[in-house]
Design goal:
ABC transporter transmembrane region fold; Rossmann fold; 3 domains; four-stranded antiparallel beta sheet; 21 helices
């Protein structure tokens, strides 16, 4: 079937390039992220969509071919009209019949053009949707270490501009390639039917088109990649300035930050201008070859008409077919342009999708249920760098901890001592380098990640809020949560009265990252989010750092009531928040330097005791 051949040809054109191979080098490891071990062609990302939508594609291509063929009949009608006019054999009714016939063809062209646009461009939109969902789903699976070393602007550019270029390549690229083949070959056939010699002269520029296409496509592919990279940088620079607009205003940095955006924008323009030098040479060259063919037709065809080798109608029809051939010649350049853009973007998307998550389920991973909450750190060491592990450079070194179910553990220490790192290892946000962490006797690396994390309520040091309502931020959009349960979480987080004070209550939209809320309010929303979930393990990273003393006391009392019901780990710089804990450890430079109860650590007269006494004095002064 012809349509299958065109589909196969399009896929082949998209897969193949002027390079010897299409395999993608594995993406470089970022931090602890490992690259994919296998190699996959970038074209494999879109093949399934072509197979899944093959019926629509075939219908679309068939409709497109019908449109092309119908266009080819119009010059034949014009030929008949011109010949009859020059022979004075045409009356008004015949002229009307020719006109009505052309109107009928135009109607059919409009109908089938709608069908092919609906099928082919609609399929391209499906491919765009599928790739964007695939990219987002894969990014969700990547480890935290991956995002430590990549710009948000890069990811935004991949999810928008790159996906759009792939859609154009698979949509209009397919149309342009089909026209270049069907309309081009058919036009040449009709031209040869009129006069073979004249057609042969017209086709003289064709080999030049093929050679120039191969030459320019190599350069276009490389420069498209640099343009996309520059677009990523520009997106990230602008995103950062918008996100930090309040800081920029507060420190009066408008001119300096505007200069940075201007520099990134100038670089993006420069990269595009380098690309335009290629495109600006390529497309005029296509037009030059087309006009060269037209000049040949005017001279040689005009002579043959004068010599009566062809009729005046044949001459007009021949020029019309040459006009139809001009678009396929231009389409060759356009489809090369589209495919090179699409291939460059497909390569960039594929590099991300080829990245294997460092933290993933093992083949024999198991689900854990009815968690008691016993946590054991057995000689655990960890560092963030991807370089070979060295104990002296470790963020955490030789950590031994035994936390019984229902126990409250307090973690204190100076800034940068490894407190946040320690608790982030429990839900496997990062993988440890040495030792093991046990949950109820199971090495957490043998547990399914979803099963492990579903047992843990976690508040990070910097609470994140979505640009949604307070209700949606606490419930993650789950409307099935009972109202009384939600209100209890609000009261436990000392947030109930605060929310009642808002005009819209729980339906108050907090803005981007909770911009309309204070730091303490954001922290309490994050706490309510965790208290809403009845999990066996509660991990709190500095939960009262941004609230006043009275509110902090209320929150601590709530947490104390949960002692014995949940295993609770609290990191805090305010030592009064952990003074009631069953056990308190002090971290310094990645090592546990103190361990014991509140009274035992006071008696030791080390970091904990000195810091506690200083904070007591500060609180007394504040109270005074």
């Amino acid at each position: 079937m012809p349509c299958l051949n065109y589909l196969q040809l399009f896929i082949t054109a998209l897969i193949l390039s002027n390079r010897p191979t299409e395999t993608i080098e594995p993406v470089a490891a970022t931090s602890n992220q490992r690259p994919a071990t296998g190699m996959m062609k970038a074209s494999d990302l879109i093949k399934p969509y072509f197979i899944e939508n093959r019926a629509k594609i075939l219908i679309g291509l068939l409709s497109l071919i019908i449109v092309d063929l119908l266009q080819l009949f119009i010059p034949r009608i014009i030929k008949r009209v011109v010949d009859d006019l020059t022979a004075f054999e045409l009356d008004g009714w015949q002229l009307l019949s020719y006109s009505l016939f052309m109107i009928g063809i135009a109607i059919f062209i409009g109908v089938f053009r709608y069908i092919w646009r609906r099928c082919l461009l609609g399929t391209a939109r499906r491919i765009e949707e599928g790739l964007r969902n695939m990219l987002f789903g894969h990014l969700q699976c990547l480890s935290a270490a991956y995002f430590d070393g990549i710009k948000t602007g890069d990811l935004m550019a991949h999810a928008t501009n790159d996906i759009q270029q792939i859609r154009m390549a698979t949509g209009m690229g397919m149309v342009a390639l089909n026209d270049a083949i069907v309309l081009g070959l058919a036009s040449i056939g009709f031209m040869a039917y009129i006069n073979v010699t004249l057609t042969a002269f017209v086709l003289i520029p064709m080999p030049l088109i093929v050679v120039s296409t191969r030459f320019f496509s190599r350069k276009m592919h490389h420069r498209y990649q640099t343009v996309q990279a520059a677009f990523s940088d520009l997106t990230e620079v602008i995103r950062e300035r918008f996100a930090g607009i309040r800081i920029i205003k507060a420190h009066h940095r408008k001119e300096e930050e505007a200069a940075r955006v201007e520099a990134a924008s100038r670089n993006y323009v420069d990269m595009n201008l380098r690309l335009v030098k290629i495109i600006g040479s390529f497309f005029p060259m296509m037009l030059l070859f087309s006009n060269l063919s037209l000049a040949i037709v005017l001279y040689l065809g005009g002579r043959k008409t004068i010599m009566q080798d062809i009729t005046a109608g044949d001459f007009v029809a021949f020029i019309s077919y040459l006009g139809l051939l001009t678009w396929p010649m231009m389409a060759l350049g356009w489809v090369t342009n589209l495919i090179q853009r699409g291939r460059a973007s497909l390569d960039r998307i594929n590099k991300i999708l080829q990245t294997v998550p460092e933290i993933r389920d093992s083949q024999d991973a198991v689900t854990i249920e009815n968690v008691q909450g016993q946590i054991v750190f057995d000689n655990v060491s960890f560092r963030y760098d991807s370089e070979p592990y060295q104990e002296k450079k470790a963020t955490l070194s030789k950590i031994h901890l035994h936390i019984e179910p229902g126990m409250v553990l307090g973690v204190v220490g100076p800034p940068g001592s490894g407190k946040s790192t320690l608790i982030s290892l429990i839900p496997r946000l990062y993988n440890i380098h040495r030792g093991r962490i046990l949950l109820d006797g199971h090495d957490i690396r043998t547990l399914k990640i979803q099963s492990l994390r579903s047992q843990i309520s976690f508040i990070p040091q910097e609470p994140f809020l979505f640009a949604a309502t307070i209700r949606e931020n606490i419930t993650f959009g789950d409307r099935q949560i009972p109202e009384d349960r939600l209100k209890k979480a609000l009261r436990d987080a000392a947030l109930y009265d605060t929310v009642k004070g808002f005009a819209d209550g729980l339906e108050t939209v907090v803005g981007e990252k909770g911009v309309i809320l204070s730091g303490g309010q954001k922290q309490r929303i994050a706490l309510a989010r965790c208290l809403l979930r009845d999990n066996a393990i509660l991990i709190l990273d500095d939960p009262i750092s941004q609230v006043d003393l009275e509110t902090g006391t209320t929150i601590i009392n709530t947490i104390r009531k949960l002692a014995g019901q949940k295993t609770i780990i609290i990191v805090s710089h305010r030592l009064s928040a952990v003074s009631y804990a069953d056990r308190i450890i002090t971290l310094d430079l990645g090592h546990i330097t103190e361990s014991g109860t509140h009274q035992q650590l006071l008696d030791s007269d080390k970091y904990y005791a000195k810091t506690y006494h200083l904070q007591e004095i500060e609180e007394d002064l504040d109270a005074a």
